Amino acid sequence: MTLPVTIVADAACCATVREPRVGVEEAERIAHVFKALGDPTRVKLLSLIGAGEGGEACICDLTEPVGLSQGTVSHHMKLLAEAGLVTREQRGKWAYFAIAEGALDAAAASLRML
Amino acid sequence: MTLPVTIVADAACCATVREPRVGVEEAERIAHVFKALGDPTRVKLLSLIGAGEGGEACICDLTEPVGLSQGTVSHHMKLLAEAGLVTREQRGKWAYFAIAEGALDAAAASLRML
């Protein structure tokens, strides 16, 4: 009788590889959100919006505290919006931003998946 | 009697600017952690480590699941270690990584500051 034999090439290494909890698409989604959060200016912008009256802020109020032009701030806000972290509402001349409901909780929840 | 008068240059805009909850150094620190998390490979690596036996993984077990060379994986692990997200322990030939205790909770807590 012959038994099948599995050759372990380097038995000293390693612990069992288990299935990761996060799949490829999920990893892409999580990374997209954290990439948006991975910039000090964007962190400060989110903090300003969160501290704003009614949890929102006009773009015109965001430029001075971060010391950047409106164009640059708009670019940062676009990245935050694309990552689903903020919502944008045009009111006449000005764009107002609010932190997207549940977005920060969802980001925190994705950390618990790791 | 003369009363002090504050001229509001553009009264249509805006809501009161409040002090952001996050200072400059805090924003830098938070962004550093999230920048490390802002890459799908690094998210997957953290997930693999978290799912590993005893909550750790040998570098030799991380290369195949992400389909990258050991050099590239080492670079990603270095960024995660620098951001305080993982700890590294050399055991003979191999480096073992574990998710740094409390690191993901701290990252989640910083989201609640925003």
3D structure, described in words:
In chain A, strand 2 and strand 3 form a beta hairpin. Chain A has one domain (24-112): Arc Repressor Mutant, subunit A, CATH 1.10.10.10. In chain A, strands 1-3-2 form a 3-stranded antiparallel sheet. Chain A has helices spanning 24-37, 40-51, 59-66, 70-82, 103-112, and strands spanning 56-58, 86-91, 94-99. Chain A is of the alpha+beta class. The first copy, chain A, is built from 5 helices and 3 strands.
Compressed to H and E, one letter per element, the order of chain A equals HHEHHEEH
- Total helical segments of chain A: 5
How many structural domains of chain A?
Answer: 1
Major beta-sheet overview of chain A:
3 strands, antiparallel
Taken from the alpha-carbon principal axes, the silhouette of chain A is elongated
Biggest interface reads:
A-B, 56 and 56 residues
CATH topology of chain A: Arc Repressor Mutant, subunit A
Structural class of chain A: alpha+beta
Approximately how much beta-strand content do the residues of chain A carry?
Answer: 5-15%
Instruction: List low-confidence stretches of chain A.
Output: 8-12
Oligomer: homodimer
CATH superfamily of chain A: Winged helix-like DNA-binding domain superfamily/Winged helix DNA-binding domain
Q: Which CATH class of chain A is shown?
A: Mainly Alpha
Mean pLDDT of chain A: 88
Tally the beta strands of chain A. Answer: 3
CATH architecture of chain A: Orthogonal Bundle
Q: Rg of chain A from C-alpha positions?
A: 22 Å
